[in-house]
HNH endonuclease (Streptacidiphilus fuscans), 195 residues
Amino acid sequence: MPQVLVLNASYEPLGVVSLRRALVLVLDKKAVSLEDTGVLMHSATTAVSAPSVVRLTRFVRVPFRGPVPLTRRALFARDGGRCVYCGGVATSVDHVIPRSRGGQHAWDNVVAACRRCNHVKADRHLADLGWRMKRTPAPPTGLAWRIIGTGHRDPRWRPYLEPYGTAEELAHLAPIPAHHHAGGAPPGAPVELSA
Ligand SMILES: [Zn+2]
């Protein structure tokens, strides 16, 4: 099921919802479509174009947002999918202070790393190796990041997230390679909308 980016009336990104949920918002006039996929959705009486971005018609006050959950996907998004030590393609999660030496599994102690650096580093401290990181790991912040961290992506979202994120983060909105489409209808195929 495609996912739809939801913006507040103020254009602030709020989250990602299923296409079905987004269509209900649009049909109830609680949101308007800003970007269409061009895919027609058919109900019993009407056909509407499936949105990829909707904006709420009324401003909603967003309660305090808690800390971002630490997941592998979120960590790779924060570190741009690159090894923090050598800049190579990250394939693993490294604890800067090794867990065997009391390092915590927390945003300020985990980084994305390539297999080689992770293997070479093993359970040693950076100082033992003379290694340095380009920047100190920290919990991610920013509204765009909260959208990207969900793992859902659509290049059409980019202009709406640009004011809220870095280029590195937004690079994660690139189209998903075709072989990553797991089942479902092929792109462009009509989707049945049951009421
Ligand atoms: Zn590396």
About this structure: The beta strands are 3-7, 13-18, 31-42, 47-56, 92-95, 110-113, 191-192. Residues 83, 85-86, 88, 113-114, 116-117 surround zinc ion (CB under 6 Å). Helices lie at 19-27, 72-78, 115-121, 126-129, 143-148, 158-161, 167-170.
